[in-house]
Amino acid sequence: MNFLRHDGKRRVVVTGGGMLSSLGRSWETAFENLKACKNRISYMPEWERFTKMNTRLAAPYTEELPTYPRKKIRGMGRVALLSLVATEDALKVAGLLSETGDVIEELKNGRTGIAYGTCMGSLDAVNALATMMTTGDTSKFDSQTYIKAMPQTNACNLSVFYQIRGRMIITDTACTSGSQAVGYGYEAIADGRQDMMICGGAEELSAPNAAIFDTLGQASFKNQTPEATPRCFDKDRDGLVIGEGAGTLILEDLEHAVKRGAKIFCEVAGFATNSDGFHITSPNYYTQGICMEMALANANLTTDDIAYINAHGTATYYGDISETTAVYNVFKRPVPVSSTKSYVGHLLGACGAVESWVTINMMNEGWFHPNVNLDNLDPQCAPLGYITGQGMEINCDYVMSNNFAFGGINTSLIFKKWKE
Description:
Strands 5-4-6-8-1-9-16-15-10-11-13 form an eleven-stranded mixed β-sheet, with helices on both faces. The longest helix is centred in the first third of the chain and has 16 residues, at 78-93. Helices cover 32% and strands 19% of the residues. It is of the alpha/beta class. It has helices spanning 27-35, 70-73, 78-93, 123-135, 145-149, 153-162, 177-190, 207-215, 254-259, 285-299, 317-331, 341-344, 351-365; strands at residues 12-20, 42-43, 57-59, 112-117, 168-170, 196-203, 242-243, 245-253, 266-275, 308-310, 336-338, 367-368, 385-386, 392-393, 398-405, 409-417.
C-alpha cells in the first residue's frame, strides 16, 4: 500500500465521525430522515416576542443532550456541549475511546490535535457580558462566562476534556468554520505535523443568528408553511433558515490508521480555501470557482472525476446564483448537485463539518439526497444536475463539498471512496 500522495505528502483518511442536527444524532437516523425527502424545519412560537423580526423558522436539535460530570463541563455553554457530543460519537466510531469512555493514551502524546470552529460562543454568556455595559450589573456573569462566550470555546473545551496536547487550530470563519477545520486538519496531517486531528464545527440555535440574516433580507419568512422552505435554487426561494447542530470528523494519517486497524470511511483527496477580496457579504462566483479549481489541483483530479457536489446552497437570491455560476464555469457540465441545507437549514459554523459527514456517508451508500422544495428551478441559476424527487443513486469514487462565508471566505473539500 502506498502511504504517500502524488505530491509526496502523507495520505489522510477519515476514521470516525459524529453529528447532531435536526436529522438526528446517528447516521442511521439521519439517513432514514434523508430518504423521507422532507425537511426538518419548525415554527418557533417563542420568537414571537421579537416583533421587528420577520422570520419565525428554524431547525433546532431537539434531543436531550447526555449528562457529564459538572466539573468537566462547567466552562461549556450549549455550543461547546454540542461539539462535545459530536466529538464523543466520532471518537467512539474511530475506536479511540476505551470501554470506560476515556481516550486512549496515544491521543495525549502531542501527535493528535484539534481544529474546530463556530461563528460565536454561547449567546447566554455573551448576553451576560453585554448586560454589564447596558445596565452596569455584573451579577449575571462569573469566572466561566468568558470561557462560554469566547470564539475558541469549542476547541479549548474539547482539548481540556480529552487531554489533547497537539496543535490547536481555531476556525471562527462564519459559515466556513467547519469546512476550514476539516481542511486545516487534513493539511496538518499531510504535512507530517500531526498523526490525527479532531476536526469540526458547532452552532447553537439563537434568535440573534436568525435576526442577522433577517435584517439583510436573507431569511425566509414563510412562517405558515415551514415544510415549504428553504427552497434552494428555486425561483420562489425567499431566504435561508437557521439550524442548530455540530459535526466532528476524525482525520488520520493512512499509515497510522492501518497500523492500528482502524475502519476507514474515505480519504480526504483535496482541499482549498481562498478569499474573495471583494465584499463582506456579497459572494463572488469568480473566486469561488478558483477555490474549486485549487481543490481539484490539490487532489490531482479533473472535473470529470467529480460525480457529485454537496452545495453550500443557502436559498438566498444572490448566493444560489453565484454558487451555481461558479460550479458551471468550472465543470462545464450538469454535475449532480444538492444542498443538505434544504433539510436542516443553515448550521452556520457547523454546516461544513456536518455536510462533509453527510456527503461521505452518501458516497458510501451510493445514494444522494435530493434538493427538497426545488419545484421550479430559477432560470438565473446555472444549468446543473439538480437532484430532485427521491434522490439519485450514483456509484462513484470522488465527491466535493463546498462552503462559502461572510467575509468572502471560500472552501472546497474533495473526498475519495475508500477501497482496500
